[in-house]
Amino acid sequence: MTSADIRHMAHALTLGRRGQGRCWPNPAVGCVIVQGDRIVGRGWTQPGGRPHAETEALAQAGASARGATAYVTLEPCAHHGQTPPCAQALIAAGIARVVAPFEDSDSRVSGRGFDMLRAAGIAVTTGILADQAADAHAGFFRRVELGRPWLTLKLATSFDGRIATASGESQWITGPAARRLVHAQRSRHDAVMVGGGTARADDPSLTVRDLGARHQPVRVVVSRLLDLPLMGQLARTANDIPVWICHGPDVDPNLHAAWQGLGAQLIPCALRGRQVDPASVLQALGAAGLTRVFCEGGGTLAASLLEARLVDELIGFTAGVALGAEGRPSIGALGLEHLADAPRFVLAESCAIGPDVMHRWTRQSA
């Protein structure tokens, strides 16, 4: 491993992140092709998952790919899907060396891509920036290995952990810089999810705004009874931007028909007690192809996800304002009796965002 290997792999990882939120159910892969000390091709997984990063980079490199090194952020695929295997494309282009962080855990690949390359006489180097690549592909791996997407829970709160005053006023606890960053974070996820209470109280659009984005994530609402505003923003835009509603088995047939007529995709889920089972929700979203979900509350949904140990990452935006005990808490009741039973997270980063503080935490077992 050389400093050049690290530099080019870091470049490939940066390129791959451009595809996050746009290429599910495929992984967001980046690829850099280097001839000598010159980059001759760059690519990343395109919207909808095709073309793959390697194909994009090879097309840019052309004849310069012969004898070059390809830096790819995941093992090149070895199976025939909608397109031929990327491993075969690298072989055909005359690539001399492939550098990748690790094997793809997808059973259709899982070492076969590397085997194809080595059998063709191509040198394969692994282990480069593996931790960073694992973080970049965490959603894809979650879906492949556990059947569910990576879940990020975002909470924007006062200093004392409140999301609104007692009367429900919440706009705006955090400042414009924090809100802009939230829109950027939405854009890097396949879906934005809220609970039915938040959808009723706030009438959110759940879209990416003010960033010039042409692509929008799927809007997911978890509502046991489908009792959501039929004249709200989600209902009015369901034909233009996908709205998926995860509901229980006991919904009103008229509401079911109404939401279908509006263009929403309805996803039946199991119950856990009197609430929609969060594990059932995430398994259903994984089955539908989602790899990264950005949950923005509310308190009841946040508590159910935390209680079920389904939150992989916590992102908090904390403002320097106190709302007091009568304010609405960001997380509902967890029923904890012992501190040892509380879900714990490890601080990954923190920084000032305008007048607010952003802090990101990852689950200890994640």
Q: Give the CATH class of the largest domain.
A: Alpha Beta
Taking the sheet with the most strands, its summary is: 9 strands, mixed
Secondary-structure-based class equals alpha/beta
- Helix share of residues? 25-40%
Tally of discrete structural domains: 2
Find the CATH topology of the largest domain. Answer: Dihydrofolate Reductase, subunit A
Radius of gyration: 22 Å
**Would you report the number of β strands?**
18
EC number: 3.5.4.26, 1.1.1.193
Pathway: Cofactor biosynthesis; riboflavin biosynthesis; 5-amino-6-(D-ribitylamino)uracil from GTP: step 3/4; Cofactor biosynthesis; riboflavin biosynthesis; 5-amino-6-(D-ribitylamino)uracil from GTP: step 2/4
Organism: Primorskyibacter sedentarius
Cofactor: Zn(2+)
Outline the structure in words:
- This protein is an alpha/beta fold and 366 residues long.
- It folds into 2 domains: 3-137, Cytidine Deaminase, domain 2 (3-Layer(aba) Sandwich); 147-363, Dihydrofolate Reductase, subunit A (3-Layer(aba) Sandwich).
- It has helices spanning 3-17, 53-61, 86-93, 112-119, 130-136, 138-146, 176-187, 196-202, 233-237, 253-262, 278-287, 299-307, and strands at residues 30-35, 38-44, 69-72, 97-99, 123-125, 150-157, 162-164, 191-195, 218-222, 243-247, 265-268, 271-272, 275-276, 292-295, 313-318, 328-329, 345-353, 356-363.
- The chain has a 9-stranded mixed sheet. A 5-stranded mixed sheet has the order 2-1-3-4-5, sandwiched between helices.
- Helix 3 (86-93) runs parallel beside helix 4 (112-119).
- The protein is globular and about 65 Å long.
- The model has no long low-confidence stretch (mean pLDDT 93).
- Residues 1-125 form the CMP/dCMP-type deaminase domain.
